[in-house]
Fold this sequence. Notes:
Oligomer: single chain
Structural class: alpha/beta
Largest sheet: 6 strands, mixed
Order of helices and strands: HHHEEHEHEEHEEHHEHEHEH
Radius of gyration: 32 Å
CATH topology of the largest domain: Rossmann fold
Distance between the termini: 46 Å
Number of domains: 3
CATH architecture of the largest domain: 3-Layer(aba) Sandwich
Helix content: 25-40%
Number of strands: 10
CATH superfamily of the largest domain: von Willebrand factor, type A domain
Number of helices: 11
Amino acid sequence: MVQKIERDVARFKEIVRGRIRQDLRKYLSHGEMIGKRGRDLVSIPLPSLDIPHFRYGDKGNGGVGTGEGDVGQPLGPGQDDDGTGSAGDGPGQHLLEVDVSLEELAEILGEELELPRIEPKGQPTLVHHKDKYTGISQTGPESLRHFKRTFKRALKRQLATNTYRPEQPLIVPIKEDHRYRTWKTVSEPQANAAIIYMMDVSGSMGDEQKEIVRIESFWIDTWLRSQYEGIEVRYIVHDAEAAEVDQETFFHTRESGGTRISSAYRLALDIMERDFPRQDWNIYALHFSDGDNWGDDDDRCLHVLKERLVPAVNLFGYGQVTSPYGSGRFVEVLRSQFGEIDNVAVSEIPDRDGILESIKVLLGKGK
Length: 367
C-alpha cells in the first residue's frame, strides 16, 4: 500500500511539473505568486486535476432522433440567450494551490530555458570558524559551569548518601559535583556569491517597469540560489545620485530627478571592495533601467565598466525595460562596446511577456 501511495504522489508531482512547464511564461510574468512565497515554498494556482470519467445524459429521453423539436433546434440542456434567470446552485471550476519548493522551480526554469550550470570562480566555499558547545566535562573555567548539571549531580550524591531531606530541600554542590561545558571549533561554509542589483528610479521609471524588475529579479535569485550554498544581496537605486537601500525601498522608491548611471556603477564598486573581495566571491552585477542617461555620462559609464567593474565580476547584466518616457538609448551604447565580451549580457524587456527571454539572455552564459 505504501509503495502504491508513493507512486501516486510521484505521478501527481510529475503532472504538476508538467502544468508548470506548460504555463511557465504565465507564471513568470505575474507577480502574485511572489506574494505567496513562504520561506522555501511558493504557492502556485493550478486548475483542478480531474480524474477521467464517463458523463451520462439525462435518463428517459428516448433514443437518437426521437422526441419533439424542429429542424435546426439545438439539442441538450441550454440557458436563456439573454442571461436572465436566478442564481445557479451548481459548482464552478476551482483552482488548486500547490506548494512547490524553490529548488524545484529553479530546476524547471533551468530545464525550460536550457540554462547551463554555473561554474564558480574563486574559492569553492568560504569557511567560517565558530566555537560550538559539544559536551560536558568535570573540569573547566567557572564561566562555563553548567549549573543545571551541577545541581543535578549534587542531588544524586545527596540521595545516594542519604543526606537529602525533603522537608528541608537544600542542595549544596561541592567541587566534585561541578560540571562544565566543553566546546570544539567547527568549520561552516558561508555564502560565496553576491548579487548587486541596481535600478534606475528616476521619473521615467513607472510602477509597471519596477514590477517587471521585481518579478525578473525573483527568478534570477531563485536560479542563482540553486547554484550556490548561499547568496548575499545588495540593492542600489539611482537617479542623478546612487544610494544603497534595503529590498523594500528598492522596489518602491520613485524619484523625479535626472539620471546618471555611472553613480550606480561607482557605488557598486565601493560595495564590492568593502564586502566582497573579487578573489573570493562570485559576483553578479545586474542593472535595470529604461535606457535614459545624461548625455555626457555615457563615457563615464563605459570607463568604469571596462576598467574596473566588468573584470571583477562573474557577470554584468543589463536589462532595459521599455518605458514610454525613457529614451532607450543606453542599450545600444553597451552593445556597441561589449557585444563580444563573454561576461556581459544585455537584454531588452518590452513588457511582462519579455521576462522569460530576458532571463535566458542574462543567465544563458553560465557565468
